[in-house]
């Protein structure tokens, strides 16, 4: 209200004489028409006097004067009575809803792992000690400064949002008016005063002129006193600044040190006072002494002494405002309203936004006070926090860009406030709905990242600046904050805006899909190891964000299907070069496949495939919702192109295999590191694991023989499985053997790894339990070691505590050392030697440990796979890989080579893997036979394995042979186990025929006897319903698979089956097939 008017003439008049006591001054102000003008006039007279001695101030005296001549009068004016009495009353009246204590750097904060909505919700020590959470699982942190206590925020805590002190209606505040509203007069006064205060604070803080004050403050004769002011930056070392100051100012070491410490703490400091020219000279000197080849000069300015004084006081006034606002919610609201009011007829944003936008230009000390001002006003009042957040999002892009080019730490940037807003669930939802904040953040990224784009519009971080990219991560982090709590209610608008954001996010992933491609180096070693950290670091940053996006998409079927369609489209757009490349034909045992003639060992390959992996994630969620059969409504069969989807993840796995086979050793350490992280716990969920899932998707939708031919081709092993292959080249043999092992392992994973909800019928807890079991199969481990090896979710939780006691027992520490968890005996049966998260070393350690244990228990040494959980219907076809012709051919070839004394193309490891696959096939058939009548079980692993190959022996006969080889003594128990399993399955097949026959025969008789046994009948009905349901889903899946094959029939049919070596097998096999029918 008192903002704009008041011309210059009036101003001169009121200056005549000022009342001497605070009380009188307050009265006098009361008589003035325009408080703002009167207030400014008062300041114009006093501030330059009080803050005159900038270089060597008497702080105590300064504070006393300010208090006496400015703050006390203001308070009198506000309350209309003695402020001390009034504030005392207020102090005891209002229970604060929120604690809001702002943390200093280094202060300890507490977060409850059971109750915090996310890990950014913290308590100060007082609140924590007085809360229920001290008896829960909690984490302690050291604050970097700038955050505040969330006690009292009901959105931050699942339970116990208040400590004893902040609980509403506690602490003796149960009067009629628990919040003690201020009387009308005080409120009216606050409405008069606060706008003037904030306006002055903002105007002075963002004042840019170095010589002139705003006219309304320039009422005195202008003096010729200036300061040379040095600013803090994060690049110059302490010593360098001291050195530059000593040189430029020709001062003592002690003085230079004093200045430097103050600059580091406050952000700026006057280092010289004097006439303009002298200060200007000092400025140039400091600049030239601090500049060198690698560093910019220090930031120095020359400022008029009165400007310096007013700026200093403006901050002091901000702190005063903070204090006043802590007394009343009404005060806070009035202040916020003043900050948000847009000036009429002005292009300028509201005051608070102007401050925000100026933030990056401010020095440290100023920022700290202004952020505190925001904390103690906006962030204490939910409604205004929302309005502030909306302003923040409005200018988000600009703020982030300025932060990125700024050199101050994130903790003192206004952008660091995002966490306080974005993690509040209702606020996040509001910002998505109303301001499309997901898109705002991703668009910001899309604008700051292009400097890293290469010719193909893919990111390339070679020669990047770590600091700068670190600042970009902060923006990525905001995405995480926004997504951290999944909405429970979806409005139409929320869905729309979320999808919009998702689309925008896909654009970023598109720039990452296939980025930093590499080519195998032959002959010479690469000259310089390329940078790899940046790309991997981004991947790490994105891991949980990717998972959260997938989870949000999975909120309902419709949303998921649309998101799937978008993602699929994006993957396809990135695959055009592959689709147009030339073709080749692979053949083996009567099957053939036409595919693109791509070779990982020769062509470009990238391990960055976030689009493909997101799609795999969405597919799994589609399966979890049971909606895969609806997919074709959104992506037509023609467009689906499963072999294109599989292609890139497959290449990535082949790359890993070739690295293990040392084919890429000339590409240096950079690649080794990337491959390490690809499978490491920090990345694997959104890299390696998803690639395996994509292959499982491929295996579930493609013809199994074609799928295996594709795998063989990409592993560059089609040759190696050609029976005529003979080579004496030891290196090549070694290479082939490693590649075959790697491929068999991946095949084991495709068929056996079902511990992902949506791939197999498992829960999240079961997945975590399995991870823990496998870690403890290596050796007993302390809590920390287990936690380190489990992936953390967006809340930095591993889920470890919920399940650990189900699978392990804690063994207390001895005199020294720490306690460890030991696996429970009943969990040992779940050990899978080819657990896909084992590293090579872990694998062999675990194998060794488990064999040793079995020996000690006088058991055989066979370590067959544990029976895997059932695949979800969408993935059920994967098992057909096990009993298809090409798989049989592969297994048989491995066994034959092991028997053949002339062949070097096998290893014991390879044999073990082949045994494992055999075991998986037999287990599958056994499980199926136990569940359904024999004639319903079409999975005929037993029959396929029992057939004669091109050789004279079937697999069982080959196994008998292997058993007799002395060098394979170590495998004897496993072979015995498999042969027994063959028997078991055989007997099951025979027996179940009998059982079916007998039960159906006696049914009529029996039924009469049990008609009263309703329960039993009901159970049976349910079982039957379940069976029918299963059958229906299977039929759907079959139709789906058939459809995919149909659609690509052209591709499959184009390849004429070439008669050749394998002719005989094919004949034989088709013969057997027909006899079975
Ligand atoms: Zn607190
Ligand atoms: Zn509290
Ligand atoms: Zn708690």
Record the SSE blueprint.
Layout: H1 8-14, H2 22-31, H3 35-50, H4 59-79, H5 83-93, E1 108-112, H6 125-129, E2 138-142, H7 184-205, E3 226-231, H8 238-249, H9 253-266, E4 268-274, H10 276-290, E5 300-304, H11 305-325, H12 329-340, H13 351-358, H14 364-376, H15 382-394, H16 396-405, H17 418-422, H18 425-435, H19 437-448, H20 466-483, H21 492-512, H22 533-553, H23 557-573, H24 576-579, E6 583-588, E7 591-596, H25 610-624, H26 631-634, H27 637-640, H28 642-660, H29 668-679, H30 688-701, H31 704-714, H32 730-752, H33 764-778, H34 783-788, H35 800-807, E8 808-811, E9 820-823, H36 840-856, H37 885-899, H38 908-931, H39 941-946, H40 955-963, H41 972-1009, H42 1014-1047, H43 1049-1054, H44 1063-1076
Antiparallel strand pairs: 1-2, 3-4, 3-5, 6-7, 8-9
Helix pairs in contact: 2-4, 3-4, 3-7, 3-11, 4-7, 7-11, 7-12, 7-13, 8-9, 8-10, 11-14, 15-18, 16-19, 16-20, 19-20, 19-21, 20-22, 21-23, 22-25, 23-25, 25-30, 28-30, 28-32, 30-32, 32-38, 33-35, 33-36, 37-38, 37-40, 38-41, 40-41
The protein binds zinc ion (3 copies).
């Amino acid at each position: 209200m008192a903002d704009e008017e008041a011309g210059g003439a009036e101003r001169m008049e009121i200056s005549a004489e000022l009342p001497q006591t605070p009380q009188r001054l307050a009265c006098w102000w009361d008589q003035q028409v325009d408080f703002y003008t009167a207030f400014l006039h008062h300041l114009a007279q006093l501030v330059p006097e009080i803050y005159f001695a900038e270089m060597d101030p008497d702080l105590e005296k300064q504070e006393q004067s300010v208090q006496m001549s400015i703050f006390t009068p203001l308070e009198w004016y506000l309350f209309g009575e003695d402020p001390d009495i009034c504030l005392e009353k207020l102090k005891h009246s209002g229970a604060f809803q929120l604690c809001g204590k702002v943390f200093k750097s280094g202060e300890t904060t507490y977060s409850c792992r059971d109750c915090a909505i996310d890990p950014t919700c913290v308590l100060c020590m007082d609140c924590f000690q007085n809360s229920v959470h001290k008896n829960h699982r909690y984490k302690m942190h050291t604050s970097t400064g700038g955050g505040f206590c969330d006690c009292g925020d009901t959105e931050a805590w699942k339970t116990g949002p208040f400590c004893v002190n902040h609980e509403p209606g506690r602490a003796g505040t149960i009067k009629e008016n628990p919040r003690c509203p201020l009387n009308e007069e005080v409120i009216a006064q606050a409405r008069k005063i606060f706008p003037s205060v904030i306006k002055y604070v903002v105007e002075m803080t963002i004042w840019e002129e170095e010589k002139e004050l705003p006219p309304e403050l320039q009422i005195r004769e202008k003096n010729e006193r200036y300061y040379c002011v040095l600013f803090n930056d994060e690049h110059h070392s302490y010593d360098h600044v001291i050195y530059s100051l000593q040189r430029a100012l020709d001062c003592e070491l002690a003085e230079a040190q004093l200045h430097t410490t103050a600059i580091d703490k406050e952000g700026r400091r006057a280092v010289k006072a004097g006439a303009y020219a002298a200060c200007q000279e000092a400025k140039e000197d400091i600049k030239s002494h601090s500049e060198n080849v690698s560093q910019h000069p220090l930031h120095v300015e020359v400022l008029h002494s009165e400007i310096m004084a007013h700026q200093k006081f403006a901050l002091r006034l901000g702190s005063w405002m903070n204090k006043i606002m802590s007394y009343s919610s009404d005060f806070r609201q009035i202040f916020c309203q003043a900050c948000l009011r847009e000036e009429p007829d002005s292009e300028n944003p509201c005051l608070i936004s102007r401050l925000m936008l100026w933030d990056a230009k401010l020095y440290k000390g100023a920022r700290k006070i202004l952020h505190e001002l925001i904390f103690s006003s906006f962030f204490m009042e939910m409604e205004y926090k929302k309005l502030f957040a909306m302003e923040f999002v409005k200018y988000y892009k600009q703020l982030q860009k300025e932060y990125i080019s700024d050199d101050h730490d994130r903790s003192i940037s206004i952008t660091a406030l995002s966490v306080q807003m974005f993690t509040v669930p209702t606020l996040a939802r509001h910002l998505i709905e109303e301001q499309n904040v997901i898109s705002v953040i991703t668009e910001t990224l899309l604008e700051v990242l292009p400097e890293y784009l290469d010719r193909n519009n893919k990111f390339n971080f070679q020669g990047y600046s770590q600091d700068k990219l670190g600042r970009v991560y902060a923006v990525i982090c905001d995405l995480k904050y926004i997504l951290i709590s999944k909405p429970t209610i979806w409005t139409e608008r929320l869905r729309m805006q979320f999808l919009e954001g998702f689309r925008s996010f896909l654009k970023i992933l598109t720039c990452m899909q296939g980025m930093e491609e590499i080519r195998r180096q032959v002959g010479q070693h690469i000259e310089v190891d390329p940078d790899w950290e940046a790309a991997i670091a981004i991947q790490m940053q994105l891991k949980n964000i990717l998972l959260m996006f997938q989870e949000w998409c999975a909120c309902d079927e419709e949303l998921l299907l649309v998101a799937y369609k978008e993602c699929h489209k994006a993957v396809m757009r990135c695959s055009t070069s592959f689709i147009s490349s030339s073709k080749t034909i692979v053949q083996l045992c009567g099957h053939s496949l036409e595919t693109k003639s791509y070779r990982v060992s020769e062509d470009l390959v990238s391990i960055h495939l976030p689009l493909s992996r997101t799609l795999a994630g969405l597919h799994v969620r589609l399966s979890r919702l049971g909606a895969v059969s609806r997919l074709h409504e959104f992506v037509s069969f023609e467009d689906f192109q499963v072999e294109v989807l599989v292609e890139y993840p497959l290449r990535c796995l082949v790359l890993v295999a070739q690295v293990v086979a040392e084919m890429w050793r000339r590409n240096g350490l950079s690649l080794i590191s990337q491959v390490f992280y690809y499978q490491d716990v920090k990345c694997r969920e959104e890299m390696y694991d998803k690639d395996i899932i994509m292959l499982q998707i491929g295996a579930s939708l493609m013809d199994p023989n074609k799928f295996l031919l594709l795998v063989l081709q990409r592993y560059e092993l089609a040759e190696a499985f050609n029976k005529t292959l003979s080579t004496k080249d030891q290196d090549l043999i070694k290479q082939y053997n490693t590649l075959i092992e790697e491929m068999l392992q991946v095949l084991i994973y495709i068929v056996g790894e079902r511990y992902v909800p949506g791939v197999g019928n498992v829960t999240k807890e079961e997945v975590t339990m399995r991870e823990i079991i496998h870690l403890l199969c290596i050796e007993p481990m302390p809590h920390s070691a287990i936690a380190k090896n489990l992936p953390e979710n967006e809340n930095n939780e591993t889920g470890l505590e919920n399940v650990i006691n189900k699978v392990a027992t804690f063994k207390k520490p001895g005199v020294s050392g720490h306690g460890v968890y030991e696996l429970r005996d009943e969990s040992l049966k779940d050990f899978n030697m080819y657990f896909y998260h084992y590293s090579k070393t872990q694998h062999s350690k675990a194998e060794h440990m488990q064999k040793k244990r079995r020996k000690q228990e006088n058991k055989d040494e066979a370590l067959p796979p544990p029976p895997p959980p059932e695949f979800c219907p969408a993935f059920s076809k994967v098992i057909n890989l096990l009993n298809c012709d090409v798989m049989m051919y592969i297994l048989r070839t491995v066994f034959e080579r092991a028997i053949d004394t002339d062949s070097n193309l096998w290893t014991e490891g390879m044999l073990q893997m082949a045994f494992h696959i055999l075991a998986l096939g037999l287990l599958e058939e056994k499980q199926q036979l136990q569940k359904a009548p024999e004639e319903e079980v079409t999975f005929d692993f037993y029959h396929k394995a029992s057939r004669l190959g091109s050789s004279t022996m079937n697999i069982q006969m080959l196994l008998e042979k292997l058993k007799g080889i002395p060098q394979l003594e170590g495998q004897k128990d496993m072979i015995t186990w498999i042969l027994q399993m063959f028997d078991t399955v055989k007997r099951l097949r025979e027996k179940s025929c009998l059982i079916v026959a007998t039960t159906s025969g006696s049914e009529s008789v029996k039924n009469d006897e049990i008609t009263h046994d309703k329960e039993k009948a009901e159970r049976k009905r349910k079982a039957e319903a379940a069976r029918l349901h299963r059958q229906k889903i299977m039929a759907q899946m079959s139709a789906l698979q058939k459809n995919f094959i149909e659609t690509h029939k052209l591709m499959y049919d184009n390849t004429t089956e070439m008669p050749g070596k394998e002719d005989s097998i094919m004949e034989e096999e088709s013969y057997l097939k027909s006899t079975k029918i």
